[in-house]
Every structure is written in structure tokens, then in C-alpha cells.
Design a protein that fits this description.
Elements (H helix, E strand, L loop, with lengths): L8 H20 E2 L2 E2 L2 H12 L8 H34 L11 H19 L2 H4 L2 H28 L7 H25 L4 H11 L8 H16 L1 H11 L3 H6 L4 H23 L5 H13 L3 H27 L6 H25 L1
Length: about 350
């Protein structure tokens, strides 16, 4: 007797409602003080053109909070869905978006941009940089991410090197190399406090002073990752039995592998380019979501995007509510949660293998 999978409608309604409340909460609570729910609603309505905005500078302050909230939600969704894609592709619950070197490449690209606008580039390039500095950081970060993924794929796609394990090993090697370059650059400019601080901030992520173009940048990577779910979900379910079984059941494993890598890398690259490197979301969220909806990718992928959209804003709002300001960067918050979680997964897997 077959059983129908339980409906996810209650979970989706609860999750979407929580997301709306979290967004309004982040608009109402900030480092400059707290507002009422009515003021938060009025500010959001003013942005959407649904009513009169708040008077004077109050609207501008609340808009900054709104862009911060949207960037947190969308970046969390992008990193979470990337984690599901890569864990399904590599059949490894410890795989995460950073495994292909995307975050490291994006951080290095932003670092080079910081050097340029911080006074380490030709004077001709520095004229008027203050107006386009935020755009330069995001653009160079994105280029660094794309270049790194291209390098990893070009090495891994050589003769006899097309399996998923090779991708992981190449990604680890490139990650280590880029990490060494980043540390070397930081050591060389350590005496320049402003530049070193900017590099460190990007390495742990930032949600400060976000703008609409940051939101758009994340969406550029997130939307394709969502659109390919119907095509990728069934193939990833078959990948669980191994490439050979998936191929026998009609899956073009090579093309599907590169498609999944492309959308996962693109979503991660766009997120990191907008908010900096924020780790562990792509590792933690898929495990949380599996306990709620199961391991079927048709359910797991969209649900993970929703849980990821809830996690980072929740951590950020808790910090604002408890401390009154954003003391810790988002990457530090997720590391405090994800580090012990990673260790728990590792110990659990080791214990299971020992039996």
C-alpha cells in the first residue's frame, strides 16, 4: 500500500509568515534605535509606492534596514540551495558552497579591489573612486569567484579527471592556495589599518550599508538556481545511487553535473559578491531541512532556500535585539553556529562507520 507524502503547505505558510515578520522586525530594529511595527510597515509601503513614506531622514534609515534585511534573506537562500545542490551532486553531507573555491575567489577579488581603491593602484585609476568603490568591490569579487570556478573546472575536466571526487580535491587545493595569497596580502598591508580592516570585514561578510543593487546582484544568481529545480531534482535523486545507476536510468551525468556546478557556483558567487564571505549556511541548512521535509530534492531544494532565508536574518535580528547593534559580522555568527554543527556531523558519521 503506497503512502502519499505529507503536505508541506503548513510548513510553507509558517515559513513565509516568519520571513515577513523577520523582515519587518529588521526594518523596525536597528543600531540607531527601534521603531514601531506601524512605522516599519509605512516605510516598506513607501518603498513599494503603496502609501506615503516616513518623514525626512526616517525613511532613508528604514530603507537601509530593509536592504539589509533583504540581502540577509536572499544571501541565506542562495547559499543554502547551493549547499543542497553540491551535497546531492557529491553525495557528501559535508560538501558546502566553498568547496569549489567560490568564496575564496570572491574574497581575493574583493581584496584586490580594496588594494586598488585604498591607494595601492595607479593614481589615474584612483580618481573619483569614492563614487564607484562599492560597485568595484562587488564586481571584482564576482570576477574572482567566476575565475576560480573556471580554474577548478578546467583542471578537473582533464582526461580521466571528470569524477566528483576530483572536483572536491581540486577545489580544496585551490582554496588553500587562494587562502595563502589572501593571508600574504593582508600581512603586507597590516600597517595600513583601514585597508586591513576592510579586507577582514569582507572575509567575514557584511550587511552594512546595503543598497538595491546588492539585492539585484543576489537575485541574478538565486533565480537560475530556483528555475532549474524541476530538471535537477530528479537527477540528483538518481545520483544518490551512483553515477552508473543514474546513467542507466537515462541521466546525462556529465551535462547534469556541470549544470549543477554552474547554478550552485553562480548563486554562491553572486551572494558573496553582495555580502562578503559567509560560511556554514550551505552546510547547516540542508541538514536542518532534511529533518523537516525528507531527502527528496524536489522538496528539499525549495525548502532549503526558505530555511536559509530565515536563518541569517534570525541571527542578525537576535544580535540587534540583544546588543542593540551589529557587534559581530554575519560570518562570525554563522561560524559560531556552524562550527559545532560541522563537528557533530563529522563525529556522527565516524561513529556510524565504526559500527
Amino acid at each position: 500500500m503506497s503512502t502519499r507524502p505529507r503536505s508541506l503547505l503548513p510548513i510553507w505558510l509558517l515559513g513565509l509568515s516568519a520571513l515577513v515578520l523577520l523582515t519587518l522586525g529588521q526594518v523596525a530594529i536597528g543600531s540607531t534605535g527601534r521603531s514601531t511595527w506601524a512605522e516599519a510597515l509605512q516605510a516598506v509601503g513607501g518603498v513599494l509606492g503603496w502609501g506615503d513614506p516616513l518623514p525626512g531622514a526616517d525613511q532613508a534609515i528604514h530603507e537601509l534596514r530593509l536592504w539589509r534585511a533583504l540581502c540577509a534573506s536572499l544571501a541565506g537562500a542562495a547559499l543554502a540551495i547551493s549547499g543542497v545542490y553540491l551535497q546531492g551532486l557529491f553525495r557528501n553531507p559535508l560538501a558546502a558552497p566553498g568547496v569549489l573555491g567560490v568564496s575564496a575567489g570572491a574574497t581575493l577579488g574583493a581584496t584586490l579591489a580594496i588594494l586598488l581603491v585604498g591607494g595601492y593602484g595607479p593614481e589615474l585609476l584612483l580618481e573619483g573612486t569614492r563614487s564607484w568603490t562599492p560597485y568595484a568591490l562587488s564586481f571584482c569579487s564576482f570576477l574572482g569567484a567566476v575565475a576560480t570556478v573556471a580554474l577548478v573546472l578546467s583542471i578537473a575536466r582533464g582526461p580521466g579527471r571528470s569524477d566528483a571526487a576530483t572536483l572536491i580535491l581540486v577545489g580544496v587545493a585551490v582554496n588553500a592556495t587562494l587562502g595563502g595569497i589572501f593571508v600574504a596580502i593582508q600581512a603586507l598591508v597590516l600597517d595600513d589599518w583601514a585597508v586591513a580592516q576592510a579586507m577582514l570585514a569582507w572575509n567575514f561578510g557584511t550587511l552594512r550599508d546595503r543598497e538595491p543593487y546588492h539585492v539585484g546582484m543576489i537575485l541574478v544568481g538565486l533565480i537560475p538556481a530556483l528555475l532549474v529545480i524541476p530538471r535537477a531534482a530528479f537527477a540528483l535523486d538518481l545520483f544518490a545511487g551512483g553515477d552508473t545507476d543514474a546513467r542507466r536510468l537515462g541521466v546525462s551525468t556529465r551535462s547534469m553535473r556541470w549544470m549543477v556546478v554552474a547554478v550552485a557556483s553562480g548563486a554562491t558567487a553572486c551572494a558573496v559578491s553582495a555580502v562578503g564571505a559567509i560560511g556554514f549556511i550551505g552546510l547547516v541548512v540542508p541538514h536542518i531541512t532534511r529533518s523537516l521535509v525528507g531527502s527528496g530534492h524536489a522538496r528539499l531544494l525549495p525548502a532549503s532556500a526558505l530555511v536559509g532565508a530565515l536563518l541569517l536574518p534570525t541571527l542578525d535580528l537576535l544580535q540587534l535585539g540583544l546588543m542593540g547593534r551589529a557587534v559581530l559580522p554575519p560570518g562570525a555568527l554563522t561560524a559560531l553556529l556552524g562550527g559545532p554543527f560541522f563537528l557533530f556531523i563529522l563525529l556522527t558519521q565516524t561513529r556510524e562507520r565504526s559500527w
